């Protein structure tokens, strides 16, 4: 069936190192893939998105990679900081014009000082 | 610019009671959503409204009703609360398709049904 899932539920990274959060999806009909960050007690915050016809997109300290061959999405965070500690969700919009946004379970990223 | 505002932030209900969660956005967005998030899980879509005057069911609509009162406001009603509806509820909004995929979320409403 359709799913947007994450390989690992938790990830610990040393401050200053780079982190990679992975996500697998099974529906190749999605138009966009989006990464959100959710800090404790807050709503999700948009980080970056990537259109399905792209392989890579860069933002400030973040890069999203899309591998459609293996249906895999990743979020790379460079030079991690304590403020990066949060739960990260990948999400997908499956149908153009259909407003349903489907979220994965999430990965908790902990930055070790 | 407040973004997406939800009220109340915290609520305790008894089984069988009713209540309405209010949501308003000041970004002139067309689409609005209600999600619930259970511990250790992702967000699941309850209902959404692609434009004023329209609403559609999401993944988990049972036990809920919604009203898109106007372009700004989208409310979620629990007619007869059940313990299974204990969750954190998030309202969100988004501009028209093609103008970006940024979906803005409110800060959440923590609901406990006892």
What are the main properties of this structure?
heterodimer; A: 113 residues; mainly beta; six-stranded mixed beta sheet; five-stranded antiparallel beta sheet; B: 114 residues; seven-stranded mixed beta sheet; four-stranded antiparallel beta sheet; 11 strands; globular
Describe it.
The complex is a heterodimer of chains A (113) and B (114). Helices cover 0% and strands 53% of the residues of chain A. By secondary structure, chain A is mainly beta. In chain A, the strands form two sheets. In chain A, strands 2, 4, 5, 9, 10 and 11 form a six-stranded mixed beta sheet that branches. In chain A, a hairpin with a 4-residue loop joins β7 (62-67) and β8 (72-77). The N and C termini of chain A lie far apart (40 Å). The model of chain A has no long low-confidence stretch (mean pLDDT 85). By secondary structure, chain B is mostly beta strands. In chain B, 0% of the residues lie in helices and 50% in strands. Chain B contains no helices and eleven strands. The mean pLDDT of chain B is 91. The interface between A and B is medium-sized, with 21 and 26 residues.
Sum this structure up briefly.
Chain A has about 110 residues and is mainly beta. Chain A is about 0% helix and about 55% strand. Chain B has strands at about 5, 10-15, 20-25, 30-35, 45-50, 55, 65-70, 75-80, 85-95, 105, 110-114.
Topology overview:
The complex is a heterodimer of chains A (113) and B (114).
Chain A: E1 4-5, E2 10-14, E3 19-25, E4 32-38, E5 45-51, E6 56-58, E7 62-67, E8 72-77, E9 86-93, E10 101-103, E11 107-112
Parallel strand pairs in A: 2-11
Antiparallel strand pairs in A: 1-3, 3-8, 4-5, 4-9, 6-7, 7-8, 9-10, 9-11
Chain B: E1 4-7, E2 10-13, E3 19-25, E4 31-37, E5 43-49, E6 56-57, E7 64-68, E8 74-78, E9 87-94, E10 103-105, E11 109-113
């Amino acid at each position: 069936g359709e799913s947007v899932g994450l390989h690992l539920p938790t990830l610990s990274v040393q401050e200053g190192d780079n982190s990679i959060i992975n996500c697998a999806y099974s529906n190749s009909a999605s138009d966009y893939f989006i990464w959100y960050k959710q800090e404790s007690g807050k709503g999700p915050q948009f980080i970056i998105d990537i259109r399905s016809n792209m392989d890579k997109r860069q933002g400030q300290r973040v890069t999203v990679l899309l591998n459609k061959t293996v249906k895999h999405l990743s979020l790379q965070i460079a030079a991690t900081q304590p403020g990066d500690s949060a739960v990260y969700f990948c999400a997908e919009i499956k149908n153009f014009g259909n407003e349903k946004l489907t979220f994965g379970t999430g990965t908790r990223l902990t930055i070790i000082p | 610019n407040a973004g997406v505002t939800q009220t109340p932030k915290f609520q305790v209900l008894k089984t069988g009671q009713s209540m309405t969660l209010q949501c308003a956005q000041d970004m002139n967005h067309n689409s609005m959503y209600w999600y619930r998030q259970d511990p250790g899980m992702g967000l699941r879509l309850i209902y959404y409204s692609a434009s004023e005057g329209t609403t559609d069911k999401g993944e988990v609509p049972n036990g809920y009703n919604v009203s898109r009162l106007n372009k700004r406001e989208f409310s979620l009603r629990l007619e007869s609360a059940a313990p299974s509806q204990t969750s954190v509820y998030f309202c969100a909004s988004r501009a028209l398709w093609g103008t970006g995929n940024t979906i803005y979320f409110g800060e959440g409403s923590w609901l406990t049904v006892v």
